[in-house]
Amino acid sequence: MVDSGGLWTPPEDELGEALQTAQVLIEEGRADEAGPYQQRVIELARERAEGHPNHYEAKHLMAATQYELAGSLNASGRHEEALAALHEAQLGYTELQDAGVLDATCFLADVRARRAMTQAHRGYGATAVLEMDGAVIAYGQLVGGADGVKHQPDFARVLAMNALILRRYGDPALAVASADAATQLFLQLADQINESPQSLSYARYLCTATAVSADVHAAEGRLDLALEADEIGLTTADTLADSESATDMRTLVAALVRKGKHLGIVGRLEGESCLRTAYDTDAEAATRVVDELDRGLPPTLVAALENAEVKLGTFEQYHRLVALSEPAPGMTLATVSGRTDPESAAVRATELAELVRPLLVQDGDTALTLGLEAHYLFAISSERESHRMRFETATYMPIWARLLLDISAAYFQAGRTEIALDLAGWCAEVATALIPYADDDLQMKDLAGSCYHHHGNLLAATGDVAASHHAHEAAQQLQLGR
């Protein structure tokens, strides 16, 4: 829901009516219908701000509504437009913060979290993990601050979103840690949340968290914990289904399927009843959840390292890399950045990257798991501006670039085009950092050119001819030394 942060009160006119209608639709789980009303709010707020550079109330309303509009666009499958709306929201919040009229820390964290979900919807899972990592860290700092109590419900919300993305594109062990933390926090804050106008939205995120918890605990054989999560999720989803929203009804079906499958594993007959009710309610939704559960989870980091040791034999860095499964000092392990400090991240990423190429020909799933983890650590070390990534660029950036080339190509060959293209985009960005070294180092020049070429090839394969042309042109200019 749009949060004014104290800058404005909703006006009693067309703008206010459009804003209220959009908010009601969102709370009812009908976000896909809210877009036209949000667009009207933005138009009217922009009219009020025109010619009034210090009309911060209208500017805040525009930024907040752009953020909400992105959610509606995502619900309609219009993810590129959602990213554009989030960009506008970020610009608006940044302007307000720079003007000193608003502490936009939580709003910018929310923008980053929604951008992560948008990237995940597009299949750009590597970018989604890293965006959400930043949002979780930002909210963790807010919760530890002077006004920490008021940020706790939204911290739980972001942890739930983080869990969902990590379940799909990261380490299931991190995903379940994030999901369990979100669930525990939601339950602790139940009285506060139930009195909130956003109570239904928080309940939906609780269902997200319990679903991830149940999936991972069950996959790891912890059926007692899985069934506990199932019970919380089903109770919450049953209450949400009173909204008669199609989205909430699908959430209920998913909760019934999960509980039914898990009860079946432990031999309890009531599992059949849960599954029968799910299929009778929405057979298509139930089938999708069953298919998702049957696909299973990606390997955990520890499992991937164990597989690597079986395939490659004993390697010297094994125990240092397994230690990444425990949180770094002062960190809680629910994010990739909680694995280690930024300086060590580049070193551990390099050690992971050494395993990827030999594993690709023997065990693709293990290689891609370790490759993604290496990429995440490189990216976090770079974003945190570690000494190694800033001042030892010529050492670490080429390793990162070759890793991205390898795993992007492997994902593409496996038919996972979206994440392949996502990683190819990262590859092109890393190549840009290599350009200052290209004039004096032919290998650097060839590597950077290969990165641009690969990105261009994948853009062409996905139909983006114009962007493909620019990428190939950049590669050609680099090779010609211009």
Which oligomeric state applies?
Answer: single chain
Topology-level CATH name of the largest domain: Serine Threonine Protein Phosphatase 5, Tetratricopeptide repeat
What level of helicity do the residues show?
over 70%
In CATH, the architecture of the largest domain is Alpha Horseshoe
> Which percent band covers the strand fraction?
under 5%
Shape: globular
**How many discrete structural domains?**
3
How would you classify the helix and strand content by structural class?
mainly alpha
- Low-pLDDT runs: 4-10
Note down, in words, how this protein is organized:
78% of the residues lie in helices and 0% in strands. Helix 10 (199-219) packs parallel to helix 12 and helix 21 runs antiparallel to helix 22. The radius of gyration is 23 Å and the shape is globular. It has helices at residues 14-27, 35-49, 56-75, 79-98, 105-122, 125-143, 148-169, 172-188, 190-194, 199-219, 223-240, 246-265, 270-281, 283-295, 301-312, 318-322, 342-360, 364-383, 387-391, 393-413, 417-438, 442-461, 465-480. The chain contains 23 helices and no strands. It folds into three domains: 1-102, no CATH class; 140-297, Serine Threonine Protein Phosphatase 5, Tetratricopeptide repeat; 301-480, Alpha Horseshoe (Serine Threonine Protein Phosphatase 5, Tetratricopeptide repeat), CATH 1.25.40.10. The N and C termini lie far apart (50 Å). Mean pLDDT is 91; it is low at 4-10. The protein has 482 residues and is mainly α.
